[in-house]
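User: For a benchmark we're assembling, each entry needs the component sequences followed by a predicted structure for the full assembly. Here are entry 17's components. Please fill in the structure.
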Amino acid sequence: MKRSIILLGIGTLLFGQADVKLNIGKPGEKPNIAVPDFRGAADAQPLMNTFNSRLWSELQNSGQLKMVPKTTYPLQIPQQPADFHPPLSGKSQGAWLTDWSGPPVNTNFLAFGYTATQNGQLVLYGWLYDVKQTAPSSAQLLAKVYVGTPDEAGSKKVAQEFAADILKIFGGSSLVGSRIYFVSDRTGHKEIWSMNYDGTDQKQFTSYRTITNFPAVSPDGSKIAFMNYPMRAASPGHPATESQPRIYVHSLETGRKLPYLNQDASMNAPSDFMPDNQHLLIYSTAAGGVSQIFMTDADGGGFRRITNSRALEVEAKANPKTGADIVFTSGRGGMPQIYRMNIDGTDVARLTTGEGEAVNPAWSPDGQHIAFAWTRGFEPGNYNIFIMDVVSQEMIQLTHGAGRNENPNWAADGVHLVFSSKRGRTMQIYTMLADGTGLQQLTTQGNNEKPVWSKGTQ
Amino acid sequence: MSASDRLHASKIAATLLVLTIAVVAPGCSKKVPPPPPPPPPTTAAPPPTVAKPSIDSFAAEPSTIEPGQSSTLSWSISNATDMSIDHAIGAVQSRGQRQVFPASTTTYTLTANGPGGSDTRTVTVSVNTPPPPPPPAPTGPRLSSAEMLQQQSQDAYFDYDKSDIRSDARDALTRDAGLLKQIFAQDPNFSVVVEGHCDERGSAEYNLALGDKRASAAKDFLVQLGVAGDRIKTISYGKERPQCTEANEECWQKNRRAHLSAGQ
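Assistant: Structure for entry 17:
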């Protein structure tokens, strides 16, 4: 009974977004889509293995569609709208909509098309049909031409762009163009790195050669804040050492450091940008005593206090929809737990049960759920990723004891999570769907942690 | 007296009688034979020849030593009544050995004197000279304070998720307070940093705050014991600088600590 309630909650989580453009099926059911292999004319054919596997995986990994297995598809695969011919007197005249909408395929949607090389470019002609319609004219949801270089990279690019357009039709968003910022020690120092959503194109962003940690990216993708221990130069009798940790803000457009006025305190660390991109939630000892939560402008001015307790208060995250409430980790009840409060400090409520240690809260883009790391049922340090509906406080557990799982963070699609997990000797970054399936490891070199999924500036 | 003794005594008496007659007889007769030639004068034994003292051997074995090692002098002398070796060894017998421990290359002189004169011999024990030590490192007062701190300060340990000063931490910090007062007194420019550290189990974010609280708890304790608070800074490393990387309680305890390091 309990289990079915939880599952219903997750169905809502996956498909309860306000901006769904097509309302298909019952809540919690994913739309079916058939994606037959596309063929390429002449020179383009050798690139089609890459294209077809990329298109399939992009759609499948979105978590938003149910892929109908290819083994059920009819023999007549349409390559263009002109290939559709209604049956005459019950006799097939070629491909038709009911070949796909009826058994054994039973799909709602069909993606088809072909590629060719034209003027030294790879050109994709792509269509998406709602095959439950009665005529091709009303079935067409998408018809578009995509151009790429006539090589493997070009075929991946047109597949990604076509998949992104299909996902938009279903109210989802493609992860293409999003970047994951994270901390890696692969150079010997913890630095900020970034990579694509699929782990490709890993790039070093900072080179401070000290300890750089806790990245936070502004919602518009223009700025990154992180904590850094500035190095004190060596002097006679003293090697160079770190000084007290400070907040740094860099532009993600130029990479340059932006001005940020730190408080004179034993520690200052950023945790999140507000939805307006102009304010930063931080935790600091600037009020004297222990770490508390504050808000500042993006340049460190306008410093003001949000929590006022004698307990350790860290990692506040602003509701991305409203900016009016925050979740944060506090030791006010003993071991760290996750609390929610209004941004003015009123209406404090503990969200987690008080068992074990609950840390690393992260809002879903719709502002209705948080993902977090919790040791419930496990020894200290053995965290698993959970999701909670903030209003009902219903929870589901996404990881189940495999390694130490921390710092979950949502993709803009509200369906994917990125997190770090120590499943062997090193900590690595993984993605999964918000129901715990579709696990993919993105990193392998050194230790990689504290991922933040930015939708990017594109 | 035995029978043979009596016989012997009577022979002596008879001989004495003959001799007496013979001596007295010339005075009794005018025709006396010429006396026998005097016996050749007994050649008086020549005064004994006084030989010159002679040092037959004088050697050092080994003849080359390292500083602190010994060498054995050995000698053999004839015809001397008075023998000595210099360098405070003094009188020696005519044949002997002596261990010596010269700190540097030394020449020993053996002198032998006697009625016939004297003799001297020398032997040299060479001591290898080590290269000079490097000049003493220029030790400014700050370096020695930093070294004192590094060698003599003690870490204060904490319970999991706690920053209370336990009784063992109290002992460690009390000793640290004495050390800091001594260092601060001898080195007016010296300052110290209290580092707060955590084990790997808590979240990195929470541990940053917890390490900060541990460092400031340790600092407060030192200040209560009279250490100058304005010369102590705190820094939290959270779990970024573990002392020990194994996943067991022994190791975690080593990491839950406040540690003193030199400031600038």
